[in-house]
Queue: 2 jobs
Job 1
Amino acid sequence: MKKRSNEPFLWILFSAGGMVAALLLPIHLLLFGFAFALGWLNGPGYDRLIEILRHPLTRVYLLVLCSLPLFHWAHRFRYTLYDGLQIKHLNELINTFCYGGAVVGTAIAVYLLWSIP
Amino acid sequence: MVHPTEYVPKSYHPRVSTYWWLGRWAYAKFILREISSIFVAWIVVTTLLQVRALKAGPAEYAQFQAWLATPWVLVLNAISLFFVVFHAVTWFNLAPKAIVVRMGGKRLPAAAIAASNYAAWVVVSATVLWILLRGTR
């Protein structure tokens, strides 16, 4: 019997991650990377941020924000290497690096978010 | 004796240039979309670094904020912002091709689906802004 492809599952992760990245990452980067970092806006202070971070919903939210876009990256970057650089002969290695990276990133996110006192 | 057909390739694979995507804007856009994923990953990494700094304490967080304001991080973040907005716009514009919504037996027009995606973008961004700015002046 032919081995069933896990491509549909990976594609769902890719597309969910693409949606999360499109909706959430621009505002996060704009605020933390520019508006607060350069003082355009008076952002939340340390105490306020840690208070927000301790909320269970924030932890779930940040896990989604980190994990799904990493799977989105894994899928797209894999094809960037296939199509852009045409290194198809390294398939196995590339897949391990991309999806492995997303899994490791997710594990780090879970650890960081749930070890906050 | 060696049979000559052994050396006839099974299928014809012309060599494509590594820079095939530079020839046409549509192709270049495709590759730019692919490249945007690298910056998506970078933003996730900085978010994780931020959580780590917050966990470590106020001094570490101040250090993280100073790092965000260093020139090379600002340049990298400016490029990332361009790519992630490029990703968002192309993603929302493509959404009608992937999402088929039927209402009363009729297919919802593509513009309506794209518009609802943009509306969601505005609402979500405003909510994030509101949560972060609540209580600050």
Job 2
Amino acid sequence: MSDLERQRWLAGMALLAAIPLPITGIATWPFVLPYMLVAGWLLTRPRAVSPLPPWVENLLAPCVLVVVAAAGGLRFGVLRPVAQLAVLVAMIRLPGCASSGRIRKTLIITSIIGMAGVASSTHPSLLAYLLVVLALGVLGVGRVTLLELRKPDQELSRRAAWPTGRLVVGTVALTMLIAAPLFALLPRLRSPFAGSAIGGGGTSGFRNDVTLHDIGTIKVSQQVALTVRFPGADGPPREWLRLEGATLNHYRAGGWVEGRHVERLPLPSGGQAVSLWPVADARGLQRAEITVERPGGNLFLPPGSVSLEPPLAVEVSRTPMGVLRIRRDTPVPFSYAVSFDPLRLRTRPPEASDLEVPGHVRERITPLVEDVVVGSPNSLAAALAIERHLQTEYTYSLHTMASLREDPVVWFLFRGRQGHCEFFASAMAMMLRVAGIPARVQVGFSGGEQQGDGSFVVRDSRAHAWVLAWVAGQWRVFDPTPPEGQPSAAQDGWRTRLPWSLDDLDALWNRWVLTFTLFDQAEILRTVATWAGANIQLISLVLGAAVGLAGLVVGLWRWRPSRRPGPGSGRSRGSDPVVRALEKVLDQARRRGLDVRPSLSPQVFGALAAAAFPAAREPLAWLMVAHERRRYAGGPPPARRDLRRHLALALRAMTAHPLRRAP
Amino acid sequence: MSARASTFGRAFPGFSLRPAPALWVFLVGMPLLGLAALNTGNNALYLLVSLLLGAFAASGVLSRHSLRTLRVELLPAGEIFAGTPVRLRLKVENRSAWLPASGVLCRLVGMPGRTLVPVVPPRGERTTTLTTMFGRRGLHRLPAVQVEVRLPLGFFVKTVRWPQELEVLVYPRRVARGLARWLSLSDREEHRRRGGRERGGDVDQLREFRTGDDRRDIHWKQTARQQRLIVVERRERRRPSRYLVLDRQLPRRDDALLAERFEGLVCEIASAALADLQRGYQVGLVVGSRVTVPAAGPAQSRRVLGQLALVKAVGPGEDPLPSLIGGEDVYRLVEGRP
């Protein structure tokens, strides 16, 4: 391979390795652009470029360090400065990469760049990127191999100097087939996202808790979670648009949980109405019939729910915070009905825990809160000021990459300044608490798509988080998320009705690749074990049939009249057992180094072999006689037992004793 | 270990593999990458590890498949002389139904000669040539062909040996021809043809027809002129009689130096015979007690060279020359005087 072609390959690889960097943001354009320009320039040069003079490289080396340090250094973790450093070093070292002394170093630094890009990628296109890289790798290896192996005077045509497309496609396809189970089986010792308590969950949908340490992109799932009907109502009341799933008041390690000791009170089942909150006057109550379409552990209630007609044959329990829980494996769909007063929220009065703020968080956000609520005459005005501040000063985004080394709320308020609804709700709750206003975070669904029959479909994409704040002596709902991030009835569109979309693909990727954990592995194992336990008879039957079939195939293969010749056997074995035995002896003699020519007659071979392996003389003589009798005299075949015994004796003697060569 | 090797050998007869440089890179890089994935829990890195391991396995499977479905046959092409480069035809057949065999390197085992077959299409074959050289004359089995496959990713060099069943006759080495020692046996030959004469020789005399004369010898003009039957008596034509004579008796049998010199004699005779045969002359050969009558043409060339290719030295008195033959024109080895 010429220097020019080598330079082009290396420059192409350098370009390819850098593709994910600006997308993931691990190395920004000011770093990547010059690097790509250099690589592109090398790619288009008509001749191999000489390396920079050593003194120039020595001069540039400290500059590289200074630039990386100035760009933040280790403040953003290790991966970013490493990627930046690698990009800058590669940019300096790429000219002259084709010279023999620089190839290996160029490959190493390009690999580091590529790995940094891969390690920071979260998009499904990563898979396509890796497959393209693999295909190009097969092409490159094939090209280099073919050019290296050809004879010096051998001219390869343009087409013959490349591996065939079928080989490349076959390699990539087979790699994918093997890699998929490997990916599922490789041991996981850590959660994919180090700061997340349960391994993160990047797909939209309801969760019992709020984990802000997820990195990556929240994917919008369009699966239907609930359907809701309002029998007897003229139109959908505005307040039903929120369906509470959980109320959270404990902020722990970058997330919201219900608390350590959750006491559950079982509710009677059987379809009879159960009072959730005592009411003196039942007038003004509205009724909602909710059908749960996706399995989960919660029942969702409109704000102000006072009574419940629980689903039949489903055990329901209630936590002190008023959250209704069911078993996660409850079969769906099932329905229940709720009576509620949309004008009045009913939940537990404020507690001391509703004002808890971690010390380091309080320390950081107190000045901000003071700035925001300054001049507010009362708690309601303060809460509204905080809500407005968050809605106007921060950006809604499903793409987040919270630092794992600092509190996510602090990161959101002061560095990231963008996030999804959970960040906004958490930030507002913290700010309210710092301002002395009891606050909780509620998660559930908001909004829905109205159907022709008046019912509403609620999809996963409508999962939302908001804030309950105790102002003016009552709990009130605040939603600090900017309007573009609030699910509402206005969001309906053709895209939401598609049964399958790119978002679903993203969701699958996020669920089964990015956030695949040890727990998922255990869950899959448990599912398989459960299924196997339930279908042991079927499995036994299938396995038995498979073993029988395999035995039949092996038997047929073993006893078929002639075998396809393989390497080392130049002829097909006959069906005659004596001939086969003799050919085995021939093979053994050949393997033991005896010069067995095809022109040898069996008798001559027998004499030669007997001379070379004296210990095998007798069984060989027996075999020769049997062969002659069978082949030339038309005699009956010898007894199989005798034949096997003599063959084994001959082979053993030929294996055990060294070959005696003629002097 | 031996049992394992034996099992492996039975499972993959003639198959072997040795690591390529890419394997060491893989073995060093993969644990590091795996460690990074394990330590960070980053599933993108797990994906990369899985794909690399998958590519490793896929490369092994595909290269093994390529190797298993290849068939290699070596075919002789033309005359083969020891010490002279010879081009052998190599037929490579791919029996795979879907996978082309790429980068198939074929080497001759124990002999120089290698060639690269860039691609063999599925269910197709390619014929190429490779140049090699046989060191010694004689009957040789064609060397085994070692087939190497590295692609698609070249972690291993996988080889399989294809023994060849064909035997080729390698003629003696061609050497610079000095003054050949030709032996003429015309006056010593005993012609056992009927009549002892041959038609078409020079006219010796005209005489009257006698009983028993061949009527085709009648000279019709003289018969008409003399009014009696006159026949032409011709002098017998001298038979071509150029022999190369090799005495294959060595003064001592187990002497490497003598054996080597004997090889030199054989080469010298073969070169002389070949040169004259190529010029259209008739050449005869006497090797020990075996006499090949003089003739010309390719058949004689094959006959003479073949005989010389297979001739072996013998001990004293084992295969003497015919008693009529002797003298200085015989190629023979004698003990040198100290």
